[in-house]
Design brief:
11 helices; 2 strands; 2 domains; mainly alpha
Length: 302
């Protein structure tokens, strides 16, 4: 395998494609496991709605139905539940694949962060999912309370509720990675708390747009369910970046101090220069006088 630091753009794309394929395999395996637990997952998904009905003062035995427009609707809902369970089950392996893709580009002293980043990522994902699951009865109970105020007896279609809650749960788990990602980037000197603070207006607009895409409903309450916590997480990320961040110059100097010095390249000998030197020595030896030969004096003429 080629050195990741020396791979070109298309080799990096091949590496990314391989890891994405493995992530899909992890999700499919997780879906297979969740398929056999779909009834339990359905009960877990419906629990916040049942609690919201009680909080809103509606009858506990109120009819909750799912309108199926076709005979395949039940199978479609079962697939959605299995997909949700598969994504949750596969998240630790997906996080590991993401780290393994980034890890070769890091210095040796940066790779030790895997023991902090990977467990923290899993814990934050679970924390986001559990927080959303805990707050959902309060929010849905508030919304259902308007039926009681208007003395309307609703018949709830939970098909949209199921899809909305699953998206919110996964979205909360993903956005709770924001403090971890920004802290890591600030630690290696790629972002600073001053830069994040100066771009807070752009961040607010991006958060609102992202929340509107994830929760495409006409009311602002569902959008605020996601946008509000993300803004709090962004503010927390700025604080963490200020505490743990380092300037890029400091980080580069530490990286140079930790990284081993490159070995000097071996000296190469030019064969043409050797040949010229040898020919010069031969010419000098041929022209030099021979000390061993003694010239005999010519006979004097009588």
């Amino acid at each position: 395998m080629a050195n990741p630091r020396e791979m070109d753009f298309f080799q990096h794309l091949d590496e990314l494609r391989g890891r994405i394929v493995r992530c899909f395999i992890y999700v499919l395996v997780g879906m297979g496991a969740a398929w056999f637990l779909r009834e339990h997952i359905m009960a877990i998904i419906q629990s916040p709605l049942r609690q919201a009905i009680v909080r809103a003062g509606l009858p506990e035995d109120m009819e909750v139905v799912i309108f199926g427009p076709s005979v395949m609707s039940g199978f479609s809902y079962a697939i959605q539940l299995a997909l949700f369970g598969g994504l949750v089950f596969a998240f630790p392996l997906i996080a590991l694949e993401a780290w393994l893709f980034v890890e070769p580009a890091l210095y040796g002293h940066e790779k030790k962060y895997v023991y902090i980043v990977l467990p923290s990522s899993i814990i934050l994902f679970g924390t986001g999912v559990m927080l959303c699951y805990s707050v959902a009865p309060l929010v849905f109970g508030f919304l259902l309370g308007f039926f009681e105020d208007l003395e309307i007896k609703p018949i709830l279609d939970v098909s949209k509720y199921i899809w909305l809650l699953m998206r919110l749960l996964l979205s909360f788990g993903i956005v709770f990675q924001l403090p971890l990602v920004i802290t890591f980037l600030a630690r290696i000197g790629l972002v600073t708390h001053t830069g994040l603070l100066s771009k807070w207006r752009h961040a607010v607009v991006a958060i609102l747009v992202g929340a509107a895409i994830i929760t495409p409903t006409p009311d602002p309450i569902n959008m605020s369910l996601l946008a509000g916590p993300v803004m709090v997480l962004y503010a927390l990320s700025i604080l963490l970046a200020k505490i743990f961040g380092r300037p890029r110059e400091t980080y580069d100097s530490e990286a140079e101090a930790v990284s081993p010095a490159p070995k000097p390249a071996p000296e190469t000998i030019d064969a043409s220069e050797d040949t010229e030197e040898a020919e010069t020595e031969d010419d000098a030896s041929s022209t030099a006088p021979d000390d061993d030969v003694v010239e005999e004096p010519e006979d004097e003429m009588l």
